[in-house]
Protein: Rho-associated protein kinase 2
Organism: Tachysurus vachellii
Amino acid sequence: MQAQLADESVMRVELQMALDSKDSDIEQLRSLLNSINVHSLESASMSSGPEFDTDESLPRLEGWLSLPVRNNTKRFGWERKYVVVSSKKILFYNSEQDKELSNPYMVLDIDKLFHVRSVTQTDVYRADAKEIPRIFQILYANEGESKKEQEVEPLPIGEKSSYICHKGHEFIPTLYHFPTNCEACTKPLWNMFKPPPALECRRCHIKCHKDHMDKKEEVIAPCKVNYDVSTAKNLLLLASSQEEQQKWVSRLVKKIPKKPPGTECSHRSSPRIPVKVQTSQSMRRTSRQLQAGKTS
């Protein structure tokens, strides 16, 4: 019975992933149809054509990216995937043929994205230094992932066993051999041969001298990250060039959902305000009527 339920669960996930892929294809066809209609309208009236948003006119974001594969304890290799970004999903395919067959390897829900950014040396200390400018990172909620197989697992953030907690930060001890400055005192934080002990927060990625922590100096600002990193999953992606990396990061950042904190509380508390006003007004009216009755 349990084996049957497990098989049904796997089948349900695969069918949902195939449906997500079909939805992406339908979305692309609708976009092509709209662009054809717009082109026909522009050709019909060249002088007074409507203006359209430049973001909508951009081609759909898709192409080859590489995901890390752990081969040994010192280095990890990369495995190419064809990635398609729709309005709601990020779909990963093993090949373009799988894309044509609506057979994605992994699907990420855009509504569950936390952050997209370029990486630092601390994030990918196992990677080749020449690859770092081409690597970027996606942080997303665990429930936002649908996956067929588990052979390629995202690397855990930081890959350290312990963290130094301070003002909401979770600092990772590290060393910098390339130019960077301390964000607490603005002094150099690097040296080619003997860099000073440094810390980098795995949440907000602020960098500072370790001496500031050891001397208990109040120069480190509190952590600004408002999501729980322990429940977030980390996915590293390698682009073909630094320009491609910048293109992917800039386009994906615009898709991160904006959910300002405290919106629900304000909506819940607002209906109470008119009630209080109405009550105070009614009390004033009754007091005026009593005073009028006494004078008469």
